[in-house]
Amino acid sequence: MDKNNLSNTTSNELSLQEEKFHAAKKSTLISVIVNLLLSIWQIIIGVISHSQGLIADGIHTLSDLIADFVVLIANKKSHKKPDEDHPYGHFRYENGASLILGIILLIVGVGMVWSAIQKMLNPELIQEVHFIALVAALIALAAKEGLFRYMLRVANRVNSSMLVANAWHARSDAASSLVVAIGIIGSLCGFKIFDPIAALIVGTFVFRMGYKFTNQSMQDLMDKGADEETLQEIRNVLENIEDIKGFHDLKTRKSGDFYLVDVHLEVDGDMSIMMGHDIAVNVRDKLMENPQILNVMTHLDPYDEECTH
């Protein structure tokens, strides 16, 4: 069995982890600045234009700051090196952060749906606003949509589920601004019911995204295995290693956005311990050429020609 410590990670792993850390820090700090400026802008214009919707959207924007700080803390914690209490590292801080962000999306979605229903039942609650509120709402919408696209591009580049969750949280805020813009347009045109209908649709969408991220992070925290495509990639590598006769009991689990792999290798039972060790190390090195694989644990079994796997 290969017992190499996780701290002896390859240069590729370190490079990927460093890239994810710095990308998450930069994109999240940009999000903090944008959300802070937008929330102040929306609340001030909302008060001037007598738009309760714009004020509420400004307050909603502040909720993104909470999400951003959660990501910053999780990103810093997950970047810590393995220690005695956490020999596999601290990458699951990312899974925990994704769970928190998913819950925030759920709460925001429920709040938007509830507010929309209340307005649909009581149209008099929807106030008419000044045209400047529409300008402010459209500017906020453009800024938030731009922030979402930037954050999602960074998240996909470094393959971070935590950053993907935070990007979609930014999209939920953009959806909130869209609701406000539609509501203001409807109010200016005399169709106040547009606001609650749009809010109901977008609120349902936000709730659905919250459920998706909450469920995914829960699965990862419960050691959900890799998807079939990743498993097949691992099998292909193992099948192309001539020193092993076969393999079985291939298992995977996630730690952050990385995978931990366990596998039993079938080898000639008459070979020396040293030869078996060298084979196990070679298998580990081959599998860990995949930058998403954090560590590989192997167990050597004597090959039995009569046994089918």
Automatic annotation (TrEMBL):
Localisation per UniProt entry: Membrane
Membrane topology: Multi-pass membrane protein
Domain Cation efflux protein cytoplasmic per the UniProt entry, residue ranges: 227-303
Membrane-crossing segments per the record: 29-48, 96-117, 129-147
GO terms classed as biological process: iron ion transport; zinc ion transport
SUPFAM superfamilies xrefs: Cation efflux protein cytoplasmic domain-like (SSF160240), Cation efflux protein transmembrane domain-like (SSF161111)
Residue span(s) of domain Cation efflux protein transmembrane: 29-222
A GO CC term attached to the entry: membrane
Single annotated GO MF: monoatomic cation transmembrane transporter activity
Pfam families per UniProt: Cation_efflux, ZT_dimer
Keywords: Ion transport, Iron, Iron transport, Membrane, Transmembrane, Transmembrane helix, Transport, Zinc, Zinc transport
PANTHER family: MITOCHONDRIAL METAL TRANSPORTER 1-RELATED (PTHR43840)
Record family assignment: Belongs to the cation diffusion facilitator (CDF) transporter (TC 2.A.4) family. FieF subfamily.
Protein name: Cation transporter
Source organism (scientific name): Providencia stuartii
Taxonomic lineage of the native organism: Bacteria, Pseudomonadati, Pseudomonadota, Gammaproteobacteria, Enterobacterales
